[in-house]
Amino acid sequence: MSALLAADLPYWVQSLLRxxxxxxxxxLPAGAIVYLFLFKMMSFMQSRLxxxxxxxxxxxxxxxxxxxxxxxxxxxxxxxxxxxxxxxPLVVLASTFLLVAVVPFGPxxxxxxxxxxxxxxxxxxxxxxxxxLIAGWSSANKYSLLGGLRAAGQLIxxxxxMVLAVIGVIIQAGTMxxxxxxxxxxxxxMFGWNGLGNPYILTQFTGFIIFMIAVQAELTQTPFxxxxxxxxxxxxxxxxxxxxxxxxxxxxxxATAGVFSFIASVLFLGGWGVPFAWFGWTxxxxxxxxxxxxxxxxxFGKMMLLSFVIMWVRFSYPRFREDxxxxxxxKVLVPVSLVNIMVTAILKVAL
Amino acid sequence: xxxxxxxxKGLGVTLNTLKRTALDGANTVQYxxxxxxxxxxxxxxxxxxxxxxxxxxxxxxxCPDWCIYIEGHKELAPPRRAGGKPRQVNKLDRFDIDxxxxxxxxxxxxxxxxxALFWSPEYExxxxxxxxxxxxxxxxxxxxxxxxxxxxxxxxxEKKGKK
Lengths: 351, 163
Description:
The complex is a heterodimer. Chain A is mainly alpha-helical. Helix content of chain A is 67%, strand content 0%.
């Protein structure tokens, strides 16, 4: 139970605060990523300025876009499976909100402190596959169906290296609790020196690279955007969606990018923590209360860094062909991550 | 594995462009606020010098999509020298170019034997109403003010051709 909230707040107030916090933790990264990276960084990488008219430097462009989408007609194709067609974007967005529930943002600033957090995180991240598949199926459109099937094949293929990459971290940390993984990194030491803690990006570098590639594929960002290939599939499973439902898909895409960056920074970059040796902390209870404010900011910084890398890769590379994409997952990422697990396990026992 | 240096180089290209755009500015122009000077001989709009037109209809007949409309009548003008007979001149009643149809091929400008049609670099004449893109001879005449001076001949260009 959170010390900040537990004191004397009734249960419904806590729940309300958690819901609000969850909405902020999902929408703030999504907005920041869309404006800073999708609008501005992509434009600058193409030697143009991007949106400049709405607000100073186009900073209000997000609101203009949302307003535009809300005005559009909500079209459902005649032959579509109406109920399923309408809930599909919400399933995808729900998976994002379920994901953020286990991410710790500070010593006491978390939504749930779940013992099997990593397991839960990997499980609910697959729910979005379900949303994408039913979106592709229920649209009654050949492009959507092809896009949905490609998405399902790709997301299942890249789910596996992602799980296997995280196992290395779990073995090293000895816990599946995300809060525990943060603690293990920040209280750890490298060869008896604890000035940096022990962020797993150093020891699990292979795992980190595999995890980021798998995240890129899970988000269907560009080198892996076969499912939404707009030049051949007219945006794949999103073809028939318009207005608010398309906006939901759009928000889910970038919110998930933000949440996966949160999770990657928890697993590999030390999460909300600073190395505990800096301030003489020894365990979670001795961490000062101000970390509940600074922690989320540190998390946000790390999230922006990782999202920058995701978007940078997205804007730089052309698209994989379908067979290359599958071969890369099964013949390169899975074997490498299996070897990574073995080496990690052997070193864990030996050292 | 051998592909990795190329992948990193690709990331470097985008990052360098990002840096260059942030430091030196973009290659693009923020259109309504600043405008690029159109290049020499830019084909913006066709201007009509009405006095030169003899309504010979060459431009109308050569237009590939038939977007020029000419109507005229003959008038008698006073003789040049005293005692001569009155001259017959063609007066334009109507000279319209429908820019909704025009494809800016410039054949009418090329074909005009009396230098009545000119290219002007002006391009900002879009209209909310499609029918307003039909420019009549008054409007076409107004474009004459925007026609630039003909560029000087290239060195040696005068020697070519018959005298």
